[in-house]
Specification:
The chain contains nine helices and eleven strands. It is an alpha/beta fold. InterPro entries: DHS-like_NAD/FAD-binding_dom, NAD-dep_sirtuin_deacylases, Sirtuin, Sirtuin_cat_small_dom_sf, Sirtuin_class_III, Ssirtuin_cat_dom. It comes from Vreelandella zhaodongensis. It is found in: Cytoplasm.
Length: about 240
């Protein structure tokens, strides 16, 4: 039996922005008017854990209210049609999962989970509410957001590299390909594996050998998916 075509999708903040989730703006070093070093670094956590918890509690509520957009839904529909779809995302929201995608690897963690500050294996879902000072893990240590901050290692990077190396087609959506180590994922695809980038600034962002599709995720991804569903394969015209 022939294996189903395997699409690996690498998504960044651009896909979530179309659902109303604000992105980190590298040009001014702010994330929703907060200096990144104060709310998204180990040093910021040490200096003022209360501020960090409040920041992520607010973002958690924003994400719970957001809804998957056409791009998220299109990828889930392709999976339902029998394609193998693996999503590697830099995003900490759960919009891919809520759209119906079942194979999602969160490189930078998940905001709807908390984890121990002494044992990274201890993770706890947050179906509602947030994290407060005094909330502790099973080992008695303060809980923190289960996200990868600037300056921390990316523990799932090797898993992401393995997925990318297995792809029949790599689709990059809504990322500047500027944040390391995630940006180096493209170097792990086979030389003959087709790759496309969907982004309004794709011409400026796309490295050699990658097809630039200059449009939003909400327009470009459904168009590609509809084509693949009709063709039954991952070939471009």
């Amino acid at each position: 039996m022939t294996a189903p075509p395997h699409l690996v999708v690498f998504t960044g903040s651009g896909i979530s922005a179309e659902s109303g989730i604000k992105t980190f703006r590298a040009s001014d070093g702010l994330w929703e008017d907060h200096p990144v070093e104060e709310v998204a670094t180990p040093g910021g956590w040490r200096r003022d854990p209360q501020r960090v918890l409040e920041f992520y509690n607010l973002r958690r509520e924003q994400i719970r209210k957001a809804k998957p957009n056409a791009a998220h839904k299109a990828l889930a529909a392709l999976e339902k049609d029998g394609f193998r779809v693996s999503v590697v995302t830099q995003n900490i929201d759960d919009l891919h999962e809520r759209a119906g995608s079942r194979d999602v690897l969160h490189l930078h963690g998940e905001i709807l989970k908390a984890r121990s500050t002494v044992d990274v294996r201890l993770r706890y879902p947050l179906p509602k509410g947030g994290i407060a000072l005094g909330d502790i893990c099973d080992k008695g240590s303060q809980l923190r957001p289960d996200v990868v901050w600037f300056g921390e290692s990316v523990p799932l990077f090797e898993d992401a590299c393995e997925l990318v190396s297995q792809a029949d087609f790599l689709l990059v959506v809504g990322t500047s390909l500027a944040v390391m180590p995630a940006a180096s994922l493209l170097s792990y695809i086979d030389l003959d594996t087709p790759c496309a980038l969907v982004d309004p600034d794709a011409d400026a962002l796309t490295p050699p050998g990658v097809l630039a599709i200059n449009t939003t995720a909400g327009e470009g991804v459904p168009a590609l998916v509809n084509q693949w569903r009709k063709q039954g394969n991952l070939m471009l015209p």
